[in-house]
Amino acid sequence: MPTRTRKTAAELRSARWFAPDDLRSFGHRSRVKQMGFWREEFSGRPVIGIINTWNELNTCHTHFPERVEDVRRGVLEAGGFPAELPALSLGEQLMKPTTMLYRNFLAMEVEELIRAHPVDGVVLMGGCDKTTPALLMGALSANVPAIYVPAGPMLRGHWRDQTLGSGTDVWKYWDDRRSGLLADKEWGEIEDGIARSAGTCMTMGTAATMMSLAEAMGISLPGASAIPAVDAGHKRMASASGRRIVEMVWEDLRPTDIMTEAAFENAIIVDMAIGGSTNAIVHLLAMAGRANVPLSMDTFDRVAGDVPLLANIKPSGSYVMEDFYYAGGLPALLAQLAPRLHLDAITCTGATLGETIAGKEIFFPDVIRGLDNPVKPAGGTAVLRGTLAPDGAVFKPTAAEERLWVHEGPAVVFRDIRDLKARVDRDDLEVTADSVLVLQNAGPVGAPGMPEWGQLPVPRKLLRQGVRDIVRISDARMSGTSYGACVLHVAPEAAIGGPLGLVRDGDRIRLDVPNRRLDLLVAPDELARRRAAWVQPPLPGGDRGYLALYRRSVTQADKGCDFDFMAGRPGEMPEPQIF
Ligand code: FES
């Protein structure tokens, strides 16, 4: 473990607020004393901001009020001064039109919370989908010592003799219900049993993916990401994180020391091996932008092309995150991947990744597979390019029927989500199992916020014929718990003039995943005519306030959908003036 020069109390960032013998610092000290603290409790000690993304409408973070106290206990034990800083919560289920619209909002809030307050280090509490990338983006920009406490997955869902997986089994049983196979009583029982405790979705959705990738990058404690939210071990992990962040302040161990290019490449490899959510690509691109790490869509294919799928977790496999935890969790999976990883990457403990995962065992070999027995030989996410997606698109082969990996068919076009809802289940929709469903204007600018509309429903007409998968293409995202032959994140998006917006009913489209191609088989002169006649569709949601800022500044999916004015320059956060 490399030794780091320890900070002195006088070098603490908070000393600027509390140490000087002047009128302004008198005010700062007297007001902390107003809360009942002695000067010795907060001055000369690391002040630790606990950035808590809790609210009563984020159903996945309901244990955070208790967990804050666990973190606080750890900070106090280690000689720090804890201060909870509530931040915007992004509850995936109840926020509309999509939490993705607000990821950058939370990232900016995190950076500004850190900048404006006398904190020396922060504990980042998140888990529900966008909270993780947002917290890490903000922490990277601020670049004070930070440790991430993942919310952890909820317990497995349960219905009669079945295990239920968040999202994944909802889509499955919803198709059964739409095709008349599931009555009200059974549907109600599934609703009762699918979300049984605090914690995030327990399939390998975006939440579990991003928690896993944060751990793989070393910004949370080893083994933290899979601990079920209600397990006593989760409380111990929270207090240990509180203890560790105090030491990280003294060691001056910062996010950019941990989330390096090597760490991002490790994250991409792990993303493939866990069958991670397609959303991870957008989030990793945005986080890398904040860290000044050169990452692009092409990096994903270069780094991860042949990484096998080792985590047998829904939607790509059979089990859920609770099983993954009992099987050894992420450290056991990382140990299998060791030959592929940058083992010298530094983690938040100060140890290297190699030291961290050495000797970690698998306890249930069907849940976490070895390289010699993968769930599927090639995992993860394919990056596609072609005339329909000049700047890229993504596809998750492990979540789609293999017969559709290479497919050519006629387009059935829906101009937006309202058009889709109105027509997809009509009996007169001209669609066959060979059709390619196209949803336009569902991207970052068009929707707005690039919602998870990319798993277009299989038309009811086809469901009745027994069809359960069909090629679907959009500039939207897809829930990490979803599955199907869905081409996502098409860039540039339809609403800013991308080729996706030029597709018409009956156009032939060719998908070729092995060769990473997505092509619109329309003659160039005809496409040029359509482009010349194209006018931007009306953009829903109005044009004032945050939405106006968002639309003006959001980048496309291949750049991570961050704001164009937020990328880069970590560690150069201008400190506030104190007068
Ligand atoms: Fe919060 Fe899925 S709804 S993680």
In short:
This protein has 579 residues and is an alpha/beta fold.
Descriptors for this entry?
Glucose Oxidase, domain 1, 3 domains, alpha/beta, Rossmann fold, 579 residues, 4-stranded parallel beta sheet, single chain, 6-stranded mixed beta sheet
Helical segment count = 21
Q: Could you give me the name of the CATH homologous superfamily of the largest domain?
A: Response regulator
Give the C-alpha Rg.
Answer: 24 Å
What's the level 1 CATH class of the largest domain? Alpha Beta
Structural class: alpha/beta
Distance between the termini: 41 Å
Q: Tally of extended strands?
A: 14
Strand content: 5-15%
Bound molecules: FE2/S2 (inorganic) cluster
- From the 3D structure, determine the CATH topology of the largest domain: Rossmann fold
Enumerate the strands of the largest sheet in spatial order, edge to edge or round the barrel.
12-11-10-9-13-14
Estimate percent helicity. Answer: 25-40%
Mean pLDDT: 94
List the helices and strands and how they pair.
Elements: H1 15-18, H2 23-33, H3 39-42, E1 47-52, H4 64-77, E2 81-86, H5 100-116, E3 121-126, H6 131-142, E4 146-150, E5 157-159, E6 162-164, H7 168-178, H8 184-193, H9 206-217, H10 232-251, H11 255-258, H12 261-273, H13 279-291, H14 297-304, H15 321-326, H16 329-337, H17 353-357, E7 382-386, E8 389-395, E9 406-414, H18 417-423, E10 436-439, H19 460-463, E11 471-474, E12 486-487, E13 508-512, E14 517-520, H20 524-533, H21 545-553
Parallel strand pairs: 1-2, 1-3, 3-4, 9-10, 10-11, 11-12
Antiparallel strand pairs: 5-6, 7-8, 9-13, 13-14
The chain binds FE2/S2 (inorganic) cluster.
FE2/S2 (inorganic) cluster is lined by residues 60, 92-93, 128-129, 166, 200-201, 205, 207.
